[in-house]
Amino acid sequence: MPKIILAIESSCDETACAILKDDQLLANVVSTQIEIHQKYGGVFPEIASRLHVENIAFVLKEALEKSAVKMEEVSAIAITRGPGLIGALHVGLQAAKALCLYYDKPLIPVHHLAGHIYANEYITPLKFPCLAIVVSGGNTELVIMKEHLDFQIIGETRDDAIGEAFDKVARVLGLPYPGGVEIDRLAKEGKPTYSLPKPMQGQRYDYSFSGLKTAVINLVHKFEQKNEKIHLEDMACSFQKVAIDLLLDKALPAVNEFHCRQVVLAGGVSANSYLRSEIVRRLKKQDIEVVIPPLWCTTDNAAMIAKVGSYLYDIHAFADLKISSDPSWRLEDFLNFPKEGEKE
Ligand code: KG4
After folding, report:
1. Structure letter (DSSP) for residue 199
2. Ligand 1 atom closest to residue 179's alpha carbon, by position in its atom list
């Protein structure tokens, strides 16, 4: 019997469904809401939830049609349980529960960041010990994996996530959401001429991006007060260089400390072109495999949730259907949920 995982992702502004049959990705449907949220300069949570409600049935139907899989053939349903926006997560979870009830299928709750890390398995298998540099709109985490489904967070941001800093800096520069994409684009035409601070250099593996963001905001205001124009391309380039250099300065010593065989990038900010080239440049003399996810893997999708779901299926990590979403679920607690058939 083939193992068929149907996965649903709805943690932020993408409604997605994927179907994975053993190692073969049969469907990967993503409906993005970006254009709607652009009007508000960021994701509007209530609107995100409503759009998930409108889209989820169509996304599911399309994935089933594309894969030519019938619900009866599905082995289990994997769902992003968290972290993410509470209302958005609920929509996916309720859809998944309804399918599980109706078709009598096990429910597999998946951690969103585990999904981003496992997206790399569509390129190459994870090799351990592995350093995962998880950089997204809501999270910045350095994760060591000694084996499959074993996540140890060795460092994280103490305030803003790196993607959040990109988005807020972009907003103050008058650039559209999602700001990271625009900053990346402009930075290619600029030079790092502005001097910006690199916060928390001393603290090993932990980050702070809020000071850097505030430094840019203060500089922009100073220029405005003096009626001077900021050079957008140079500012984008200066900010991007400091943020990514800081990320790598702190992350890469972990490669030696934990004797890593592989480094993987994960999350939306891994689409950043400077990060992608700089990590390869810095590690080229070391005997280590650097895995850079293709762009389709850097944005939210359900294929990555299916991948983790498939590993969790093998260990029967099935949830009780009373489970709820967890918007601030810790990666290290990813197996900590009420299990099917477990007594309270
Ligand atoms: O992984 P993701 O969808 O966020 C969460 O799930 O939390 O990533 C979205 C983030 C946004 O902050 C966006 O600005 C950033 O990824 N991003 C980028 C780039 N493309 C997307 N940041 C820097 N450079 C990019 N090319």
Report:
1. T
2. 14
Q: Cis (ω within 30 of 0) for the bond into 338?
A: no
Q: Is 87 in the pocket of ligand 1 (CB under 6 A)?
A: no
User: Which of 31-40, 104-113, 160-169 has the weakest average pLDDT?
Assistant: 31-40
Please state, in angstroms and rounded to a whole number, the distance separating the CA atoms of residues 16 and 30: 4
Pocket test for ligand 1, best of 33, 80, 181 (most atoms within 8 A of CB): 181
Q: Which of 136, 160, 183 to mutate to test the pocket of ligand 1 (most atoms within 8 A of CB)?
A: 136
| Span from the CA of 3 to the centroid of ligand 1 (angstroms) | 32
Nearest ligand 1 atom to the CA of 135 is 1
Is residue 177 pLDDT above 90, yes or no? no
Q: Whole-number mean pLDDT of the chain?
A: 95
The finding on whether 138 has its CB within 6 A of some atom of ligand 1 is yes
Residue with CA at minimum distance from ligand 1 atom 23: 180
**Nearest CA, atom 16, ligand 1:** 268
* Tokens of residue 223, six digits: 């220029």
Domains of the chain and any CATH numbers: 4-117+298-333 (3.30.420.40), 125-292 (3.30.420.40)
H-type alpha helices, the chain: 34-38, 45-67, 86-103, 112-118, 162-172, 179-187, 210-225, 232-251, 253-257, 273-283, 295-298, 303-314
Give yes or no for a contact between 344 and 128, defined as CB atoms under 8 angstroms apart: no
Partners of 335 in beta bridges: none
pLDDT digits (tens, 9 = 90+) for 76-120: 999 999 999 999 999 999 999 999 999 999 999 999 999 999 999
**Tokens (6 digits) for 138:** 């809501």
pLDDT digits (tens, 9 = 90+) for 254-300: 999 999 999 999 999 999 999 999 999 999 999 999 999 999 999 99
Phi, psi of 158 (to 5 degrees): -95, -10
How far is 270 from 299, CA to CA, in rounded Å? 9
